[in-house]
Amino acid sequence: MSSNSLSEARKYLQGALTQGLPKDWVITDIEKAGDTFRKLTVTYEQGDIVANISGGELPPGVIGLEFTLNLITPEKDGDKALTRLGDAAVELAFLLDSLPQLVWDNGSRFRLEAGESGYRFPITVLVTYSPAPEEE
């Protein structure tokens, strides 16, 4: 993805999640998510701008924009939640793996205070800088 704007990286992520995940999942910015989950939900939160990923420096003209994805299931019963969450986490992981402008390496399980279970995926969207063409 070539962009002079970090908002393009955010749009890329939103579009990839919306197009690649089942239509009955909720995909939303964490700021808009609230604290009640009625459907399987993926929240995303924009983080830091980085020049290194997993200890390796990115090439000149490429930066990374970090996000945290949270996959949350509405079930509070542990057995039901784990079954549904496990299948959903695999689906999300395969989608992330298929995106060429995105780097990820793990998903960590968590549980919210209200009882919902989830997986947290730290990801980095790669952004390539392309200067605007000079006007003649």
Defining key terms:
136 residues; alpha+beta; 6-stranded mixed beta sheet; two-stranded antiparallel sheet; 2 helices
Structure description:
This protein is α+β, with helices and mostly antiparallel strands and 136 residues long. It has one domain (1-29, 39-63, 89-130). It contains two helices and eight strands; from the N terminus they run H-E-E-E-E-E-H-E-E-E. The chain has helices at 6-20, 78-98, and strands at 26-29, 41-50, 52-53, 56-57, 62-73, 102-104, 108-111, 117-128. Strands 1, 2, 5, 6, 7 and 8 form a six-stranded mixed beta sheet that branches.
Give me the strand/helix succession. Answer: HEEEEEHEEE
Broad structural category: alpha+beta
Counting DSSP E segments of at least 2 residues, the number of strands comes to 8
Contiguous runs where pLDDT drops below 50 for at least 5 residues: none
| Residues in helix, % | 25-40%
Give a short overview.
This protein is of the alpha+beta class and 136 residues long. It has one domain.
Topology:
Layout: H1 6-20, E1 26-29, E2 41-50, E3 52-53, E4 56-57, E5 62-73, H2 78-98, E6 102-104, E7 108-111, E8 117-128
